[in-house]
Specification:
Chain A: This is Putative ABC transport system ATP-binding protein. The complex is a heterodimer of chains A (248) and B (168). Chain A is α/β, with parallel strands linked by helices and 248 residues long. Chain A is 34% helix and 26% strand. In chain A, the strands form 2 sheets. Chain A has a 6-stranded mixed beta sheet with strand order 6-7-8-3-9-10. A 4-stranded antiparallel beta sheet of chain A has the order 2-1-4-5, covered by helices on one side. Chain A starts with 6 loop residues before the first strand and ends with a helix. About 4% of the residues of chain A have low confidence. Chain B folds into 2 domains: 82 residues, Orthogonal Bundle (Arc Repressor Mutant, subunit A), CATH 1.10.10.10; 73 residues. Chain B has a two-stranded antiparallel sheet with strand order 1-2. Chain B is elongated. The two termini of chain B are 42 Å apart. Classes of the chains: A alpha/beta (248), B mainly alpha (168). Chains A and B meet through helix 6, helix 7, strand 9, strand 10 and helix 8 of A and helix 6 and helix 7 of B.
């Protein structure tokens, strides 16, 4: 039997109550993400992107519909079962980092690997690799409060990848980064993706979205486009050089 | 290309092939390599307009080569170009014309147009990402050109999103 999809949603719906008025945020999303796929979710603010990934990570309960992760029904689980699943299988990069304030950067990054059962040595090696890739080796002993916003965001990404989760979920992972740090993040995402990491991330940043295998666009809580990005060779015209020439 | 050739000649006289090499060296992979024919055609026009002049330099065992130098008029033209603010971003846009006009005539669905255009822009962004990866990290001119193109593309994508939200 082939591997089940890492993510499958069936008619997924989220309705918030705003002072007694129902506000639909996600309206019937069917989404299947196969193992190893890198999916970028785009769309205007308020289109339901963040709500969708929060539901996939069990951080926001769904109103109706189904969520299946690695072939197991997840939306009906208790909160503690979700917590266990997240620890084992999901890495999550929040818009607002959520680092543990009284632990060093190094401990923040190693913790998920240790909780998932990695040896101290493996957790340390993984942490050193991730912090190195993100240009943060020199910050390992700092506490989160000593870091700039962009550094905290990269630590949050390193932490999310530390236990090699079967699913990486991220909400605007480059939202606070300048272009040089964005490039480091892109390179790391490319690297883990080549190693088979499944990624679902919400982004406004076209540099990030353009690295995905597939781009899903939401509008008013519904999927309005879902397609693979072509490679340069398959596109007849409009190479990068032309862009530079046109705009430069 | 006129102005870039004038600028290079303001530095020192040169023949056509040297100008081609200089452009390639300065702008790197980010700039489509100028074709030597285009360079000679442009130099010919600049000469006709009195902005450059050419002298024949004899070479042993080879045909004479034409070395171009800047005239006073060329120097003035270059100064004017440098002192002027450069053209702002495009305000007319072919895609926007399609987007507004096509649904009126029933030729195409607006959502389909936007989706296709988004995929095209993201494909271009992917090309630029790959180009940036292949570019030497010390090559600041090329990297900045690529980053400029990326920022323009990002703005086009943001604008596309606004069109999708607000057009009826």
């Amino acid at each position: 039997m082939s591997e089940p999809p890492v993510v499958r949603t069936v008619n997924l719906v989220k309705i918030y109550q705003n002072g007694g008025v129902p506000v639909p945020a996600v309206r019937g999303v069917d989404l299947v993400v196969e193992p190893g796929q890198f999916v970028a979710i785009t769309g205007p603010s308020g289109s339901g992107k963040s709500t969708l990934v929060h539901m996939l990570g069990g951080l926001d309960p769904r109103t109706s519909g189904e969520i299946w992760l690695d072939g197991k029904r997840a939306d009906t689980m208790s909160e503690s079962a979700w917590a266990l699943l997240r620890r084992r299988k999901i890495g999550f990069v929040f818009q607002f980092f959520n680092l543990v304030a009284n632990m060093t950067v190094a401990d923040n990054v190693e913790l998920p690997a240790l909780l998932a059962g990695a040896s101290a040595r493996d957790a340390r090696e993984r942490r050193e690799h991730l912090l190195g890739a993100l240009g943060l080796t020199g910050r390992a002993d700092a506490s989160p409060a000593q870091l700039a916003g962009g550094e905290q965001q990269r630590v949050a990404l390193a932490r999310a990848l530390s236990n090699k989760p079967s699913l990486l979920l991220a909400d605007e992972p480059t939202g606070n980064l300048d272009s040089r740090n964005t490039r480091d993040v892109l390179r790391l995402l490319g690297e883990v993706h080549r190693d088979g990491q499944t990624i679902v991330l919400v982004t406004h940043d076209a540099r990030v979205a353009s690295m995905a295998d597939r781009v899903v666009t939401l509008l008013d809580g519904e999927i309005v486009d879902d397609g693979a990005l072509g490679t340069a060779r398959r596109r007849p015209r409009g190479t990068a050089g032309d862009v530079v020439e046109l705009r430069g | 290309m006129r102005q870039s050739l004038l600028a290079l000649l303001a530095k020192e006289p040169a023949h056509g092939y040297e100008l081609k090499q200089a452009l390639e060296q300065i702008f790197g992979r980010a700039y489509p390599p100028p074709n030597i024919g285009q360079i000679y055609v442009t130099l010919g026009r600049l000469e006709k307009d009195g902005l450059v002049r050419a002298v024949d330099v004899e070479q042993s065992n080879r045909p004479n080569k034409k070395v171009y130098y800047l005239t006073a008029a060329g120097r003035d033209a270059l100064d004017i170009w440098v002192d002027e603010p450069s053209e702002g971003p495009r305000v007319r846009d072919e895609f926007f014309m399609k987007l507004v006009l096509a649904p009126m005539t029933g030729i195409a669905d607006r959502m389909a147009l936007i989706n296709r255009q988004r995929r095209h822009y993201l494909g271009l962004m992917r090309d630029l990402n790959e180009l940036a990866d292949r570019t030497d990290r010390e090559d600041y001119v090329a990297l900045l050109l690529i980053e400029g193109a990326m920022l323009h593309l990002q703005a086009d994508l943001d604008w596309l999103e606004r069109c999708q939200e607000d057009l009826p």
